Inverse folding.
């Protein structure tokens, strides 16, 4: 038979394990962790979560503890066949334990509703506005007032409220930078609003959170918060026309036209808008839904066989160079295209 | 006999496979539901293990992203529609007529039709694996991901038609149980003398009847979009994908209570029995159930907090969602009150029920955490939500279902399950479950999205994913232990007796397994927990006899049993054929619908009389009814023994 002592020991061990687990989860240095907020939006949500967490923990200790105590205390004694007192209910108790949860809920409902409105209303409506469009499976950032269109890397000035209009060109996505702000969905036909602000310059990971098809797991992005001067420099570079190619990049730029890349990718003011705008592609640290580092090696592999790098991507499904054997590129042509891409600083 | 009835002569066999194919006996249908649903439960479990294997380490390549997407879509769809709902239906079928003192459900052939249609839907959905790929857009099937523009394969069509078939099965069953519970209760069993499990079944059935039409409409719209070029969910043509989400979750949230209310009913039967006390606050528990069933309709948008419905809507749904915690909490307090000062028998059934309460507290509290729309902005679509739903649907529903299996298995089979193996099963399930799902809370708070086939080590999710996978495989082992327990029990002679747990409700007043006609005499009910009160009404406990209550003996009773029928099976088969036709050939649609219509027609023309008077079971029942009360148990035991002898 399991002794009372053993059960007590077991409970202590379980509680310790749970506490250690909770602590290690909270102390996680995961770049996507909702703990360790880096902006006022996420900080308010973190404080709210911690308040609700403590309320929940107290309720759990009382109710769960009460349950375990009841089970241990009132378990049948060996050989005892007598009937316990036949209690049918207790009116005042029922009233008490209906009111108690209402009180707890009021405590968490007030900051929750405050948080809902804080999330929905920008602290500074006149600040920088960027239109964010989710595509299968990458993010487009359109700085309409600045005439800048880029992909997968959202540059913002630190310490400044940034207003985002979140849209989608195809299916439903969800825009989330956990260190900076809660998420909101990108719904085709709707324009949703989100604001965010980073306390410090830095790089913050983001990811699509709404299941959006085969490459959903590979639809990431980064938010790069620059110092004010850094942001101005970045804008100046992005607004400049694309570099004029030289050397192998010249052949690459011709291949970019003849192989049909231009049908989906815009450079300067020519090209399609199905794929990311590549005008300043080489200024970005990552590509392909921000899952690949922007290095020559990765680019060669990507342009040679995108499917092997990111299963399901639209380019390998639609671009004639991958679907039509007559259009396929030689390794040399690939290296020229990559040289061209790398020249687009 | 008129000519028409000789054309549609009803089958009379109870033997062999044929006996099961034509059966209308609620007990056999209950067992069919249970066994089939358990098989699907294991299929869904295997799909989960494939996913956990893939996520055990970062950047694993056990399955492709496409297969992974099919796995989680089918895992969710299977567990909800093919496992938990029909496992609940198994108990409804077997237990409800026994608990209310009836000989069968109100519409026995419709009941058989429900089962065969459920089976057809299950086979249809799972056959998609072999016919071009399973559905791959999640169990929630959000448009426009599910429209033809983004999803060309047959998978989504299988999903649409599969859910439509399962909806027919669920609706037929739900109507049947509402009518049964409202009309066939034993004399004297007023609503407030009804067992809690029967109450929760009634509420679940009402929810089903109201919720399924909503998803039926949504699925028809999607079907039209995919097959006939309508544009309900296409924005560029003025449609709106948010419409799908509203329709889906107006169904989807009551569906959550369809999955959990039967579990609450089971626990409300098990706890009093093994505490040897009546349920604490019976009317409050019933009222809480009614409030949950009602409020369940006012919270659907909490699944859509990040959709952008605006702060007013989010605030309103935050409050209604929090409000639902109140009746849920009240139930938990009443369950603990039931055990308070009891004399708790901690057997397998009871352990699973206690486990249910503890896990449900955790699931409920994490639910409150994202009932707050603002807090949910950091949790929606992360593993935190995955942890929550598994604490509610596995720690909740599945724990309660196992509790119900240990509790009612002796009534269903006449055999007790091994307590030793049962406790090992519980310990493994409890440990495996918490190992698998508690770490998901951490993963979610650390930002791991749901429905991703892979992750990078740099994200810091390695440890808890690995632990979670270990737990998942531990659950897999626990299921094998359970199967071993069942197999072992089935090989031994009947040892349960009529009332192994000193039960409280009418099903324990008759033999185990019950005779085809359940009650030789329809019992007269005087109180809540009538059987318990009969045993302990101040006098010495009565002998445990069929028809337990104090019915004057020797009275001639007419036993009416429903006739067997081929046609429910054929009507369901027609639906299955027509569903395949929707994808592959119009001819099959026509043939399938003709078969269904012909079967329904023949069904209505079947002779309405009961078993032919020479049927041995009819004779047996009449003989039992004519015996004095005291002599019945012995005679039933004799008959059961001789019928077992015949089988061997």
């Amino acid at each position: 038979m399991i002794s009372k002592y053993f059960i007590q020991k077991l409970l202590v061990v379980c509680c310790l394990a749970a506490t250690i687990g909770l602590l290690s989860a909270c102390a996680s240095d995961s770049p996507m962790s909702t703990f360790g907020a880096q902006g006022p939006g996420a900080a308010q949500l973190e404080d709210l979560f911690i308040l609700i967490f403590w309320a929940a923990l107290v309720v759990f200790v009382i109710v769960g503890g009460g349950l375990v105590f009841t089970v241990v205390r009132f378990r049948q004694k060996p050989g005892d066949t007598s009937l316990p007192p036949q209690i049918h209910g207790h009116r005042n108790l029922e009233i008490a334990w209906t009111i108690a949860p209402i009180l707890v809920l009021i405590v968490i409902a007030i900051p929750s509703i405050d948080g809902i409105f804080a999330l929905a209303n920008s602290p500074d409506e006149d600040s920088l506005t960027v239109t964010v469009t989710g595509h299968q499976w990458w993010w487009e950032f359109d700085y309409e007032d600045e005439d800048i269109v880029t992909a997968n890397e959202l540059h913002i000035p630190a310490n400044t409220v940034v207003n985002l209009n979140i849209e989608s060109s195809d299916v439903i996505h969800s825009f989330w930078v956990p260190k900076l702000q809660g998420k909101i969905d990108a719904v085709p036909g709707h324009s949703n609003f989100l604001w965010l602000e980073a306390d410090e310059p830095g790089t913050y990971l983001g990811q699509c959170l709404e299941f959006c098809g085969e490459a959903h797991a590979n639809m990431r992005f980064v938010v790069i918060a620059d110092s004010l001067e850094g942001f101005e420099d970045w804008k100046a570079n992005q607004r400049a026309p694309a570099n004029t190619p030289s050397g192998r990049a010249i052949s690459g730029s011709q291949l970019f036209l003849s192989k049909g890349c231009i049908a989906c990718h815009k450079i300067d003011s020519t090209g399609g808008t199905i794929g990311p705008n590549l005008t300043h592609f080489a200024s970005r640290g990552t590509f392909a839904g921000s899952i690949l580092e922007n290095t020559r090696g990765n680019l060669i592999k990507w342009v040679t066989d995108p499917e092997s790098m990111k299963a399901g991507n639209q380019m390998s499904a639609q671009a004639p160079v991958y679907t039509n054997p007559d259009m396929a590129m030689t390794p040399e042509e690939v290296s020229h295209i990559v040289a061209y891409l790398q020249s687009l600083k | 006999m008129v000519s028409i009835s000789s054309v549609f002569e009803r089958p009379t066999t109870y033997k062999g496979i044929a006996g099961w194919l034509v059966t209308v006996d609620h007990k056999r249908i209950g067992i069919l539901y249970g066994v089939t649903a358990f098989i699907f439960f294991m299929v869904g479990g295997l799909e989960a293990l494939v996913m956990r294997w893939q996520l055990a380490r970062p950047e694993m390549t056990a399955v492709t992203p496409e297969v992974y997407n099919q796995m989680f879509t089918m895992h969710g769809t299977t567990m909800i529609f093919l496992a938990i709902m029909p496992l609940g239906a198994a108990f409804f079928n077997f237990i409800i007529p026994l608990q209310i003192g009836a000989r069968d459900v109100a519409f026995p052939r419709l009941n058989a039709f429900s089962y065969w249609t459920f089976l057809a839907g299950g086979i249809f959905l799972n056959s998609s694996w072999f016919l071009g790929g399973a559905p791959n857009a999640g169990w929630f099937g959000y448009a426009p991901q599910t429209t033809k523009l983004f999803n060309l394969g047959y998978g989504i069509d299988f999903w649409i038609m599969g859910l439509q078939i399962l909806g027919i099965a669920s609706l037929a069953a739900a109507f049947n149980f509402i009518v049964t519970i409202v009309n066939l209760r034993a004399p004297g069993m007023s609503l407030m003398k009804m067992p809690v499990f029967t109450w929760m079944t009634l509420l679940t059935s009402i929810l089903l009847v109201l919720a399924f039409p909503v998803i039926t409409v949504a699925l028809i719209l999607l079907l039209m979009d995919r097959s006939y070029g309508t544009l309900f969910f296409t924005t560029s043509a003025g449609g709106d994908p948010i419409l799908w989400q509203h329709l889906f979750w107006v169904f989807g949230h009551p569906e959550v209570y369809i999955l959990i209310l039967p579990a609450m009913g089971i626990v409300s039967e098990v706890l009093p029995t093994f505490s040897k006390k009546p349920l604490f606050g019976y009317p409050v528990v019933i009222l809480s159930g009614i409030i949950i069933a009602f409020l369940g309709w006012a919270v659907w948008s909490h699944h859509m907090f990040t959709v952008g419905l605006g702060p007013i809507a989010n605030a309103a749904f935050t409050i209604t969602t929090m409000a639902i915690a109140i009746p849920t909490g009240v139930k938990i307090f009443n369950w603990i009150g039931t055990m308070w000062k009891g004399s708790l028998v901690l057997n397998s059934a009871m352990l699973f029920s206690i486990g249910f309460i503890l896990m449900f507290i955790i699931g409920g509290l994490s639910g409150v955490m994202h009932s707050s729309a603002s807090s949910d902005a950091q949790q929606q679509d992360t593993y935190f939500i995955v942890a929550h739903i598994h604490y509610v649907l596995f720690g909740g529903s599945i724990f309660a279902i196992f509790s119900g299996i240990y509790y009612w298995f002796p009534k269903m089979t006449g055999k007790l399950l091994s307590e030793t193996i049962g406790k090992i099963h519980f310990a493994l399930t409890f440990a495996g479950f918490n190992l698998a799902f508690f770490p998901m809370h951490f993963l979610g708070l650390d930002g791991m999205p749901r429905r991703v086939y892979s992750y990078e080590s740099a994200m810091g999710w390695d440890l808890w994913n690995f632990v979670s996978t270990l737990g998942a495989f531990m659950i897999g082992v626990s299921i094998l232990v359970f199967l071993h327990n069942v197999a072992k029990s089935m090989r031994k002679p009947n040892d349960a007796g009529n009332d192994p747990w000193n039960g409280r409700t009418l099903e324990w007043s008759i033999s185990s397994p019950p005779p085809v006609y359940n009650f030789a005499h329809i019992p007269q009910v005087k109180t809540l927990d009538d059987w318990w009160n009969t045993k302990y009404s101040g006098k010495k406990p009565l002998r445990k006899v069929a028809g337990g209550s104090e019915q004057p003996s020797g009275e001639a009773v007419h036993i009416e049993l429903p006739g067997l029928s081929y046609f429910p099976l054929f009507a369901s088969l027609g639906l299955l054929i027509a569903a395949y036709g929707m994808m592959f050939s119009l001819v099959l649609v026509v043939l399938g619908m003709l078969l269904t219509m012909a079967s329904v027609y023949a069904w209505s023309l079947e002779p309405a009389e009961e078993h032919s008077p020479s049927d041995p079971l009819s004779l047996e029942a009449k003989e039992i009814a004519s015996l004095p009360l005291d002599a019945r148990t012995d005679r039933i035991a004799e008959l059961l023994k001789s019928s077992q002898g015949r089988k061997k």
In short: The two ends of chain B are 36 Å apart (CA to CA). Chain B touches chain A through 94 residues (CB under 8 Å). Residues 249 and 590 of chain B are 33 Å apart (CA to CA). Confidence is low (pLDDT under 50) at residues 1-6, 540-556 of chain B.
